[in-house]
Specification:
Layout (H helix, E strand, L loop, with lengths): L17 E8 L4 E7 L4 E6 H4 L9 H18 L3 E7 L5 H10 L3 E7 L17
Parallel strand pairs: 1-4, 4-5
Antiparallel strand pairs: 1-2, 2-3
Helix pairs in contact: 2-3
Length: about 130
């Protein structure tokens, strides 16, 4: 018989004061992840994780709640200054940025990293109804 897997405890160690806040705002949800400069996740939150369901996840208020939860967690770990990378076309982009600022994080830069196709994939064939 194999031994049951042991649960690993979450690392609550201190991290460096500078980090990167990744905001992925889709049409259905908003995910905020705060990482250190090497890309290791310090904290994350999404509109769904905060408690919103269905179409309420895509609202700016849900993005604001997710961002403030994520910021509090990251500040407890020791993050003070963040560079913000925003990806996606969703409605929660600006709300999440404002919320990170209001939570007490110092914002050094805001960068849009939305992927743009340069005529890449072939589109699906037209609908016939």
């Amino acid at each position: 018989m194999t031994e049951p897997k042991r649960k690993t405890k979450k690392r609550l160690g201190k991290v460096e004061a500078v980090g990167v806040a990744h905001i992925k705002a889709t049409f259905n949800n908003t995910v905020v992840t705060i990482t250190d400069t090497r890309g290791h996740t310090v904290s994350w939150a999404s509109a769904g994780r905060v408690g919103f369901k269905g179409s309420k996840k895509s609202t700016p208020y849900a993005a604001q709640s997710a961002a403030s939860n994520c910021a509090k967690e990251a500040m407890d770990a020791g993050v003070r200054r963040v560079e913000i990378w925003v990806k996606g076309p969703g409605s929660g982009r600006e709300a999440a940025i404002r919320s990170l600022s209001a939570a007490g994080l110092e914002i050094t830069a805001i960068k849009d990293v939305t992927p743009i196709p340069h005529n890449g994939c072939r589109p699906p064939k037209r609908r016939r109804v």
